[in-house]
Structure to design on (386 residues):
């Protein structure tokens, strides 16, 4: 049985061209980029090229790209690094942030000495930050740090980061956006977003795991999380993961080049999928909001999401119940909770996230399998209660 992969927001297959670019740096061009000999210089040049490729993907200068081991580290570098650079005050995030923003923000608010005052922007029933409520909250509690994700990893809903950044900047705040799910799906322009920092990750765009970046405004004050040899402009010490960084660079270049084509293709598939799911009685979360084109977050009432995911996996379809990064707390989505979704319905949530290699035939097959499994589960439930 051939697996149909429909979980691209969790991770993606490494592109063939990306893997080919990475391979030499495991065995032949294996130098430490801090070494002064030929092999080291070769590795340094490869990193410089990748830094340029990542920078061009979001319209910044290469010096603004700080490589990290992953999106979680990059988000922590901003939240904790910015917090350690100023006197504790008010910190704002949205109620639907990824745990790698939410958790460090909560940790700052729980410090025994000099805790931060943590606030969360509320979202409406479609998962959009309430801009009017945000404006009032920022006026009442002038912030030092604000972080709002560009596209949500569960619903795919896009936030008006530019508007939020303008309001936050008026109070002198440092503003960050987690753009990991947005790159390659919608345009991501650092200047247009009006932020001080932005996070990207390789493995969401057909690059390798283990490489990501925090894009920073040159004037942003950050303290490093990792001290040592002063790599990455002193913000992230440690010998660079050259193969992964090389792969990240090419993945960014390819993602930008293919973005329009990929968006058109996945939007067609997503719209067709949602038509079919609605025909089966599904509720689509965030459907009224602007979303990245590849993401469908749905629920079939009375069919538990975890159960449906397992059954679909056995039928040859890889999907997710909520977010892959939140697997420690299955069946409980803080995103749907923030959207005021009934907890019983939230337990039914399943996420399909599409990629450029998915086909209309696969969507047809998925819908047929979902219809069959749903009917079987309902019949089992009926027998149980009788």
């Amino acid at each position: 049985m051939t697996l149909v992969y429909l979980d691209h927001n969790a991770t993606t297959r490494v592109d063939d061209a990306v893997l080919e670019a990475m391979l030499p740096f495991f065995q032949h061009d294996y130098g430490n980029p801090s070494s002064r000999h030929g092999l080291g210089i070769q590795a340094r040049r490869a990193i410089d090229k990748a830094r340029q490729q990542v920078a061009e993907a979001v319209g910044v200068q290469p010096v603004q790209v700080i490589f990290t081991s992953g999106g979680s580290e990059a988000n922590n570098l901003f939240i904790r690094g910015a917090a350690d650079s100023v006197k504790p005050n008010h910190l704002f995030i949205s109620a639907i942030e990824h745990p790698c923003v939410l958790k460090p923000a909560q940790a700052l608010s729980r410090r025994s000495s000099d805790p931060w005052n943590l606030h969360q922007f509320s979202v409406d029933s479609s998962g959009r930050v309430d801009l009017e409520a945000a404006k009032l909250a920022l006026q009442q509690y002038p912030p030092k740090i604000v972080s709002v994700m560009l596209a949500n990893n569960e619903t795919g809903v896009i936030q008006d980061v530019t508007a939020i950044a303008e309001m936050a900047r008026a109070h002198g705040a440092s503003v960050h956006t987690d753009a990991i799910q947005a790159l390659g799906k919608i345009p991501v322009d650092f200047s247009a977003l009006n932020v001080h920092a932005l996070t990207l990750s390789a493995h969401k765009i057909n690059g390798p795991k283990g490489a990501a970046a925090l894009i920073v405004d040159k004037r942003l004050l950050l303290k490093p999380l990792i001290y040592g040899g002063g790599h990455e402009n002193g913000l992230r010490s440690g010998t660079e993961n050259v193969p992964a960084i090389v792969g990240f660079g090419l993945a960014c270049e390819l993602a930008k080049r293919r973005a329009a084509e990929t968006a058109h293709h996945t939007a067609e598939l997503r719209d067709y999928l949602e038509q079919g799911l609605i025909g089966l009685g599904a509720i689509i979360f965030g459907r009224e909001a602007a979303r990245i084109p590849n993401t469908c977050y749905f629920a079939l009432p009375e069919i538990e999401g975890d159960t449906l995911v397992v059954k679909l996996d056995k039928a040859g379809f890889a999907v997710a119940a909520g977010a892959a990064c939140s697997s420690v707390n299955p069946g409980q989505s803080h995103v749907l909770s923030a959207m005021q979704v009934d907890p019983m319905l939230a337990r039914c949530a399943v996420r399909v996230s599409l990629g450029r290699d998915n086909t209309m035939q696969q969507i047809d097959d998925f819908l047929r399998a979902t219809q069959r499994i749903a009917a079987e589960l309902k019949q089992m439930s009926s027998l149980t209660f009788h």
Observations:
- Confidence is low (pLDDT under 50) at residues 324-328.
- The two ends are 35 Å apart (CA to CA).
